[in-house]
Design a protein that fits this description.
Layout: E1 5-13, E2 16-27, E3 31-36, E4 39-44, E5 48-55, E6 59-66, E7 75-81, H1 84-95
Antiparallel strand pairs: 1-2, 1-7, 2-3, 3-4, 5-6, 6-7
Amino acid sequence: MVERYRQTGGARLDGVNASWRFAKLSVSEQALGISVFGREYVFPREAITRLSEHRGFVSTGLRIEHRAARAPGLVVFWASVGRARFARLATELERRGYAVVR
């Protein structure tokens, strides 16, 4: 069994943007979870339709496209400024069987 992976970063949830350190992503083999400003969103593996690299002005993030009913439509976890932490996140996701489009 692969242990859960956690990373601190930022997030964009529809029109709300949380700066770095205000969002936490957790990754398990069964689901992804994002915690922002005290709210938590869980994306079970079967509700995730696509994971892809999302580039902002200076940050690189993970876009989560999903079918989860009680979550924002646009979900981006900002992994880092630049690509190094995103590359580590993508590797950790792939270790747990998720496909990440880069």
